[in-house]
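U., I forgot to send this yesterday:
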Amino acid sequence: MLEVSNVDLHYGAAIALRQVSVTAIPGAVSCVLGRNGVGKTSLLRAITGAHPVSAGSIRWEGADITRLPIYERARRGIAWVPQGRDIFPLLTVRENLETGFAVLPRGERRVPDEIFALFPVLKTMLRRRGGDLSGGQQQQLAIARALVMKPRLLVLDEPTEGIQPSIIKDIGRVIALLRERGDIAILLVEQYYDFARELAQTIVVMDRGDVVLSGAREALDEADVRRRLSV
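Result:
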């Protein structure tokens, strides 16, 4: 469904990605692992259209989207939960969720009941401002807002960062449920191998803009993966 092939990405003269290839398919989680500053977020910016690539191609559902703007990719079912959450702090929880309506036909602009089944805490906070929520609650809101868009590809950038363990478990449960639904591809960027190991079918490890390991989770040597993630 998603095929990233030999992508290069530059920020001015600095190269952030070199010949990076990644795939994601419905009903599975593909996880990109790596230390800080190795190019993981740059890869997601390339996939979502937030930054143009210098070389290579990105195909989605059989179509070349390499040069499409970010809003066109969103309309094609690509939803991005960025690092740091980026919810709207002065809008209520309900209003934050409703920003996901932008890519939907008018007749489909409602918050599905499934959102509150996945994130029950949000139902009790609909009138609270996003900025008044805890970090973990804001992360749940950011994921819920992306799901309101009815995505076919969900891109998550370090959803466990700065989150308390109980909510990390809740987020892992939600990702697993979405995976089991079978109609959505999930691309997860993480630093923590234990979280990825529980969820991912495919793992890609990056270092300094390059893919240094890639394959099915069970085919990779766990000690080798952990060594490449250690500081």
